[in-house]
Design a protein that fits this description.
single chain; alpha+beta; Growth Hormone, Chain: A; 5-stranded antiparallel β-sheet; 21 helices; globular; transmembrane transporter activity; cell membrane; transmembrane helix; MFS_trans_sf
């Protein structure tokens, strides 16, 4: 029977574990939040849309290696303990994030820039692969049996709060430095700041004690000698790994990354919202929705984990396309009537293209509307000595929404993150309860990081890639998360049991 942990102790455990995990998520997500700017620094100036796709591919690489980190650090966690393993992952994550902030641009070192950043992203992915399973296991093994969903849900908030922190620091840094300085060199500050946060977290984690369940197991000489073999060669245990992956974490992953990362990418790169506006919308949505991680985690202690998670998947399947169609419709300024315009301010720039006799003439007209909205109408001409003026390309960028539409978008983002809290709030308790103590770190980490890291983490890259294909529409990319969530919903409905308050001592 699990011993009761004093209430003040469990909150110290949650606080210390959550702070470190939040910082790791912050480190991991700064890159995605700055993908457009980073792409312009890592690749040639004339790379165009391919720079964003290549940058998202580097971002996705960190997700692809997360399962390998789960195997490496999960094994260590089951051999030497939870505490020292996620101390190591924190140091690896913090160091690689700091170094990304120091990498020179493409103009300075050429293609060595994206290669070095790719290597550091891989280290980040490996570290995160070992962090989450350790933190969730550590908290679960301290939590009382009838409140495991509630206490582990605090760890679940850290992924979204890490994104919130990264967005907040980026917006503050940009507003303090100004757009030009931020795009030039200021984007490095959020990466460099990471090292301070990591040092504080390491200091706090050094004061933590080992999980009581693992300590007991170690004292009794029952620690697994080969966690990988015990996890995956055991037929019954491997079956649970596969069920956790295909029936839960795969669908949970695509809901998580669609509602937060793809939403941000879509608003910025497809709807062309203003940099700050797109991030303010996400910040408000995250702020309103984050408490629901704990609400759904606690509720899962009473009604079970399964149907809360599967309901979140179902709602995403039903509502994603209408939500993103609304984003498109409400940011379509192509049919603005002249009577709605208060002012127009044109700015003309001509830039000679390096190595050619061509120049780019850009006419940017800032248009302010009566309802408070504004946007930049950008007309680009390529002027060639040999061919004359080529056909102009017209774009609408840096859109600032009228106040009612802004809050409408906040509500739509809030709803998507509410679905994230439904699928994510109970899942740590769900995974912990599937596996025995001696192989828990390894067994739960692998399905989590394949489902969440690979299937979920690839959402921005795959969805953006699909939407770039000939004949596709801006909504075509949504078929990837909708398809994965549908498959997971079917498997989970048929095969998952509605676990609640399982004994995890064995």
């Amino acid at each position: 029977m699990q011993e009761a942990i004093p209430k003040n102790n469990i909150f110290k455990v949650i606080g210390a574990s959550s702070l470190g995990t939040l910082i790791e998520w912050y480190d991991f997500y700064i890159f995605g939040s700055l993908a457009v700017i980073i792409g312009s620094k890592l690749f040639p100036a004339d790379a165009g849309a391919s720079a964003l796709i290549n940058t998202l591919a580097i971002f996705a690489a960190g997700f692809i290696v997360r399962p390998f980190g789960a195997l490496v650090f999960g094994r260590l966690g089951d051999l030497i303990g939870r505490k020292y393993t996620f101390l190591l992952t924190l140091m690896l994550m913090g160091g690689s994030t700091f170094l990304i902030g120091l990498i020179p641009s493409y103009e300075t070192i050429g293609y060595a820039a994206p290669i070095l950043v790719l290597i550091l992203r891989l280290v980040q992915g490996l570290a995160l692969g070992g962090e989450y399973g350790g933190a969730a296991t550590y908290v679960a093994e301290h939590a009382p049996k009838n409140r495991r969903g509630f206490f582990t849900s605090w760890i679940q908030t850290t992924a979204t709060l890490g994104l919130f922190l990264s967005l907040g620091i980026i917006v503050i840094t940009k507003n303090v430095l100004g757009a030009e300085a931020f795009s030039d060199w200021g984007w490095r500050i959020p990466f460099l700041l990471s090292i301070v946060l990591v040092v504080v977290s390491i200091y706090i984690r050094l004061k933590m004690h080992e999980s009581p369940m693992f300590s007991k197991l170690k004292a009794e000489g029952k620690v697994s000698k080969n966690p990988l073999k015990d996890s995956f060669n055991n037929k019954a245990n491997f079956k649970m790994v596969l069920l956790a992956l295909f029936g839960a974490t795969m669908g949970q992953g695509v809901i998580w990354y669609t509602g937060q990362f793809y939403a941000q990418s879509f608003l910025e790169n497809t709807c062309h919202l203003d940099f700050n506006d797109s991030r303010y919308i996400l910040l408000w949505g995250i702020g309103f929705a984050t408490p629901f991680f704990v609400i759904f985690g606690a509720w899962s202690d009473k009604v079970g984990r399964k149907w809360i998670m599967l309901s979140g998947m179902l709602l995403g399947i039903i509502f994603y396309r209408p939500i993103y169609q609304t984003f498109l419709d409400d940011t379509d300024f192509t049919k603005v009537e002249q009577a709605d315009v208060i002012s127009t301010t044109p700015i003309t720039k001509s830039v000679l293209m390096v190595g050619t006799s061509d120049s780019l003439k850009t006419v940017t007209t800032k248009i302010l509307l009566r309802n408070g909205a504004s946007f930049n109408k950008v007309q680009v001409d390529t002027i060639s000595i040999a061919k004359g003026v080529l056909p102009a390309k017209e774009m609408f960028k840096d859109k600032i929404l009228p106040t009612p539409i802004f809050w409408k978008f906040v509500a739509l983002i809030f709803f998507q993150i509410l679905l994230v809290t439904m699928v994510y709030g109970p899942i740590a308790a769900f995974l912990v309860e599937l596996f025995p103590t001696k192989i828990r770190y390894t067994s739960m980490s692998l399905p989590y990081h394949i489902g969440n890291g690979v299937f979920g983490g690839l959402v921005p890259f795959i969805a953006t890639l699909i939407a770039s294909f000939a004949g596709s529409t801006p909504l075509s990319g949504l078929w990837y998360p909708i398809g994965i969530a549908t498959l997971s919903l079917i498997i989970g409905t048929i095969y998952l049991s509605n676990k609640r308050d399982e004994n995890i001592n064995d």
